[in-house]
Each structure stands twice: as C-alpha cells, then as structure tokens.
Amino acid sequence: MKPPISERIVRPQECVIAFAIPTSDETFKNHLRLKRDFASMYRNPGRYREHVARVYQSVEPAFRKLGVQVREEVTLQQFGQLFSGEFDVVILFAHWRRGAVEFDEGFADVSSIVAEIPCDFNGLLDLCVCHPKELVIGLAQERLNLLTKFLDTKQATPRFWLYFYLALFTHLRDKDLTYLRGVEDVFREFLKRMKSGRRARS
C-alpha cells in the first residue's frame, strides 16, 4: 500500500495538469461565442492570445518534455477520469465563480465535482482555481483520502501560474521531494524574486 501523498516523493511523470480554460485562439473564440464566463472577462482574442494562449503555447512543450501529462478542453467527466489511479497528483487549471468551476462545457457545482472523484483516491488535487473555498470544504468533508491543495492569493494571472508550474515540475524532476514541499520551495523563490524586482524598480 502506498504511503500518504503527503509523504510520497513525486515526479513530474506522476502528475497531470488539466486545463478547463481555453488554451488556443480557436477554443477561446468558441467559448466567447458560447458566452463562457472566463472568456468573457478577456473580451477579445488578441488580449487573450497575449496574456494566456501564447504563454501556454510556450510552456506546454516543456511540460510534456518533463513527463507531465497535459489535458486540454477538459470537461467535468474527463476531469473525473483522471482519478483512476494513473496519477498521484491531479492539477486543475480552471475558473471559479459563485460556488462552481467552469469546465469546457460550462459550470459544475461543488456536489457534481465531488461526485466525480472516487472515495478511495489516495492522492492530491491541486486547485489552480481562484478562491474555491466551498469546494475545498466539500472535498474535506466527503473525500477523506484526498489531500487538496490551494493557495488563497489575492491575485495571480494565468501567466504567473503557468510559469510557476513549469518551475515546480522542473524542481520535482531535479530533487527528491514531496509535492507540497516542492510547491513551498518554488513559491518561496517566486516571492523572493518578486520582492527583489519591486525593490529594483523603486
């Protein structure tokens, strides 16, 4: 039997990152046409291309080279299939609003998301989702074997998190670390660089 995920060494090959936000111009335009909430915040393809799609396209090959599995245009059902046991860590890169996560086909509420995760999944769900406290609470109450990680930051752009995960996967490749220790190390380094940059500009 595997030790708890909080104690296990995790490699990039044991991680999957699932994108529910658009990762291409074509998908963005389709989401905009369908009046999806996340796409509507960006309003036009040029702005989305600059701030999200181009950054994604620059880091996605590096994710795959490191051995990370990447899933795009993820629906709620496809998200649930990631908990079959193939991966120790599932990362959901998605948009949250009013108690629900926006997947490729639209919003899913907390109970629907919890239902997709098997009760016996003994791994980690990393929510790269803004302020999903209701989901975190629901998972803690209903999925006792699951460790859920999220960072309640005031503001962080997709660009920031895409580069953050690239640094994290590289760190996990190079060091024998638990996933949470890797997150802690990389986040500390990012904060240090951000503070240094602010001091240099002042």
Structural commentary:
Helices cover 49% and strands 16% of the residues. With 202 residues, the protein is α/β, with parallel strands linked by helices. The chain has a single domain, classed as 3-Layer(aba) Sandwich (Rossmann fold). The longest helix is centred in the C-terminal third of the chain and has 23 residues, at 179-201. It is globular, with a radius of gyration of 17 Å. The mean pLDDT is 91.
Percent in strands: 15-25%
Shape: globular
Give the H and E element order. Answer: EHHHEHEEEEHEHEHH
Between the first and last Cα atoms, what is the distance in angstroms? 53 Å
What is the tally of helical segments?
8
CATH class label: Alpha Beta
Q: Which consecutive residue ranges, at least 5 long each, have pLDDT under 50?
A: none
Do you know the CATH topology? Rossmann fold
How many E-type strands?
8
Kindly provide the radius of gyration, computed on alpha-carbon positions and rounded to a whole number of angstroms.
17 Å
Q: Given the helix and strand composition, which structural class is it?
A: alpha/beta
**Number of discrete domains:** 1
Topology at a glance:
Layout lengths: L14 E5 L5 H9 L3 H6 L2 H21 L3 E3 L4 H6 L7 E5 L1 E3 L2 E4 L2 E4 H7 L7 E5 L4 H10 L4 E3 L8 H17 L4 H23 L1
Parallel strand pairs: 1-2, 1-3, 3-7, 7-8
Antiparallel strand pairs: 4-5, 5-6
